[in-house]
Amino acid sequence: MAKIIVTSRYMRNSPKRSATNLVKYMGTHEGVERVAEGIDNTPATVRQQRLVQDILKFDSAAKDYGEYHDYENSPTKSSASEFIDAFIERNAERVGDLDGLVSYMAERPGVEKLGPHGLLSQTDDKIDLDSVAEEVGQHKGIIWTHVISLHREDAERLGYNKAEAWRELVRRNVTELAEAQKINLTNLQWYGAFHDTAHHPHMHLLVYSKDAKQGWLTKKGIDSLRSALGNDIFRLEQYKLFTMETDLRDRLKKESREEIEKLLAKIRDSYAPTSEAGFPTKDLQRAQAVRLSAERC
Prior knowledge:
By secondary structure, the protein is an alpha+beta fold. It contains 13 helices and four strands. It has helices at 16-28, 32-37, 46-58, 66-73, 77-90, 99-107, 129-138, 152-158, 163-172, 174-180, 219-233, 235-270, 281-296; strands at residues 4-11, 143-150, 188-195, 202-209. The chain has a four-stranded antiparallel beta sheet, sandwiched between helices. A hairpin with a 6-residue loop joins strand 3 and strand 4 (202-209).
């Protein structure tokens, strides 16, 4: 079943390095290069194993992640990487409390790069990763972090296996993004990065208002954002479905009319009345009524 997954969190008064490193993680995280080379099923590195254990000690609820179950069943480099990534994505405001995690984020290479890094935004102006990281780290207001994810088969089928597609998705829906977060469109600032992971290609989306006093996100706002993005992503399939339904309805109308005409002809041929009183008017009227009903459908 086609599905879009949106996870939303926010940071407020977090350590500056948490926000700074999150931006750098978004912009330099390993992505399409790894997938292009295939899934790495070799055993997880010692560093990954230690980091997984550190995460579980830090937050035992991480054991409930589907990614952890995958790692537990098959402790490979890829499964360890996806579990660590999932923890970072869902706990962006707390990663500064785990020194090993911050280091892992900052040093990890990759992402599908449209230039020297993979950071995206509303304009095509050159983005300086360090400047953006400093800007976000200094921000005094709330910073929201969203992760928008698709299943691999949906991403491949719909063309969302490239950074450009995700960038244009957000750009098309920037008004809906601003409305969902109660931010004046002129104050809205967002940065994103596409991470082409093996099973759930996704986009990190970091959003805040240039006016630190603006911005608010409720469950209704999250649902509205999910709906807008989902409708956009799957709009072509929805159009195809509508077209198929219309074609089917038209075909049924045509076939019904043809069958009814055959029935009328059969009724006329079955009777040869010599007078008006002998003509089977009720049968004809009934068939004609059915034909009119079919034409109205």
